[in-house]
């Protein structure tokens, strides 16, 4: 099965500024991919290219289409959802449903209404009358009523409290995701989505620093916290990054000898957030 997203040497320049620098990455069907990078790394430009909102150099195929030239056809099978907190206060719930039904051909009004009824939200209510959690439910109903093969989420829970964020992601995974759909998420709240992701893309200065499944990360990377008396032995195993933590030093390795590391202490798989910091700070690749 061809990849849902396939980018080769994807490049975008704004004058002298290179927003995407020969980026190579892919995403398969049935995967939840986290696109993670610091501010100005190229995340937004990558999303704009994927959604057909900007031209580019290099090659990019999304659902078998070239996004910039075939954007109208692409958007029949793709959906873009930004920050859920931006729904205007004056907007009525039923008017929001009417709007999405008018702009997306795969929107299922009956499903949206059923999801809202389950949450106890009536169509006549305005957004300003709803709690943050209820606004999240409205946004979820609008999102999950779209029968899209590719869902792109750009900082989808920015401004929501932790309970509302958890409700958003739980419903997204349990009620929306299946093996035919692909979700691409950008977020600064890496810890909250780590358990949802199947794959990660690290991007920095327009380049892809890491493109990996979480399963591969578990076999490819390792971290170990060692006391001062074992530090030199741990450094002999050639870590690519290290940092102090509570009187010890945590060292990060790529493709290490796990048996040799185990002799020095407890070896663990780094979290996505820690690996992200290590990769960008370590200057690897």
What's the helix and strand layout?
Layout: E1 5-14, E2 17-27, E3 32-36, H1 43-50, E4 57-62, H2 71-74, E5 78-81, H3 93-103, H4 109-119, H5 132-144, E6 150-154, H6 162-176, E7 182-186, H7 190-193, E8 199-204, E9 207-213, H8 214-220, E10 221-226, H9 231-235, E11 241-245, E12 248-254, H10 258-262, E13 267-268, H11 272-282
Structure in words:
This protein is α/β, with parallel strands linked by helices. The protein folds into two domains: 5-205, Rossmann fold, CATH 3.40.50.300; 216-282. The chain has helices spanning 43-50, 71-74, 93-103, 109-119, 132-144, 162-176, 190-193, 214-220, 231-235, 258-262, 272-282; strands at 5-14, 17-27, 32-36, 57-62, 78-81, 150-154, 182-186, 199-204, 207-213, 221-226, 241-245, 248-254, 267-268. Strand 8 and strand 9 form a beta hairpin. Helix 4 (109-119) packs antiparallel against helix 5 and helix 5 (132-144) runs parallel beside helix 6. The radius of gyration is 21 Å and the shape is globular. The model has no long low-confidence stretch (mean pLDDT 90).
């Amino acid at each position: 099965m061809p990849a849902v997203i396939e980018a080769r040497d994807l490049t975008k320049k704004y004058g002298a500024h290179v927003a995407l620098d020969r980026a190579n990455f892919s995403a398969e069907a049935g995967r939840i991919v986290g696109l993670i990078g610091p501010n100005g790394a190229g995340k937004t430009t990558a999303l704009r290219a994927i959604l057909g909102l900007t031209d580019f150099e290099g090659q990019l195929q999304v659902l078998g289409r070239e996004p910039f030239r075939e954007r109208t056809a692409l958007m029949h099978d793709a959906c873009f959802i930004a920050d859920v907190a931006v729904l205007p206060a004056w907007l009525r719930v039923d008017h929001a449903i009417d709007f999405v039904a008018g702009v997306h051909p795969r929107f299922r009004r009956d499903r949206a209404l059923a999801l809202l009824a389950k949450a106890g939200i009536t169509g006549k209510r305005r957004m300003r009358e709803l709690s943050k959690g209820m606004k999240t439910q409205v946004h979820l109903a609008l999102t999950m009523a779209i029968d899209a093969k590719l869902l792109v989420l750009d900082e989808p829970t920015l401004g929501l409290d932790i309970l509302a964020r958890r409700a958003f992601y739980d419903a997204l995974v349990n009620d929306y995701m299946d093996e035919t759909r692909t979700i691409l998420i950008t977020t600064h709240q890496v810890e909250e989505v780590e358990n949802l992701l199947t794959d990660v893309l690290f991007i920095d200065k327009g380049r892809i620093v890491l493109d990996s499944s979480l399963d591969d990360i578990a076999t490819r990377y390792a971290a170990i916290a060692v006391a001062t008396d074992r530090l030199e032995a741990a450094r002999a195993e050639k870590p690519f990054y290290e940092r102090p933590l509570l009187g010890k030093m945590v060292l990060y390795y790529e493709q290490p000898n796990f048996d040799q590391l185990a002799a020095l202490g407890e070896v663990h798989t780094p979290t996505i957030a820690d690996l992200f910091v290590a990769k960008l700070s370590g200057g690897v690749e």
